[in-house]
Structures are given as structure tokens and as C-alpha cells.
Amino acid sequence: MKYFQSFYITLIAILPMVLGGCHKGGVTYGSSANRARATEWLNEVCREISGYYPESAVGTKCRNGKENIRFNYYVKHISPNTRYLGVDECKDGLNKEIVNCSRGGKTRYGNWEYRLALNSKN
Fold first, then answer.
1. Which residues, at least 6 apart from 28, have a Cβ–Cβ distance to it below 8 Å?
2. Which residues of the chain fall short of a pLDDT of 70?
3. CA angle 114–118–122, rounded 5-degree value
4. Please, what are the domains in the chain?
5. pLDDT at 119
6. What is residue 16's predicted lDDT score, i.e. its pLDDT?
7. Phi and psi for 51 in degrees, rounded to 5?
């Protein structure tokens, strides 16, 4: 019985760290070239939004893709105190939203919430 109690307590503690998922509706990448373009922007976007973030601070950047699509990149610091967001950490978190979600998505990993939203440029 104690084993199951420990398991559920651990599960409840870990779940908020990885909550989120792919957007269910909205614009899709439309092509693999557009998904690749979203990935190509990561280096520049993450260099621009890397830095120190106090609790609840947000970094956002928008970039144009191909085929009339716009990428909205978003990172939020979700843990207490000030924390540094490095370029590699930023790229890793946002890239998961590109690779795993055909419409972008939102996921929390430890200290950060990463989001990628796709919109039509019209």
C-alpha cells in the first residue's frame, strides 16, 4: 500500500513540471519547409530573449515563416527567484514544441513554460 501511495505522490509532484501539450486547433505548419523555418529562427530568437528573468517574467518574439504563417515564440519563468535562461536551454524547450506539435504547443519543464503559436499573417 505504501508503494502505491509513494507512486501517486511522486506522480502528482512531477506532473505540473511537464503539463501542457499541443494546440488542438488553429493554423498548421502546412509543409516541412515551414516547420524547418520555425527551427531555423530558434538561434536568433533565443539569443534575443536569453538573460535573467525574475519570477513570472516573460520573453516573446515573433518571426515570419513561409506560406503566410507567423511563429510566436514565448518563454515564461515559472519558479521563484531570478533565474538565467541560456540560449541552449531556450532552444531545447521551444524546439520540442516545433518537433512534437503540428500546430505549436505549450509545455512546462521545471523552471520554464515554453509556447509556440502559429498564426496566419493575414
1. 102, 103, 118
2. 1-19
3. 145
4. 20-120 (3.30.430)
5. 92
6. 38
7. 145, -170
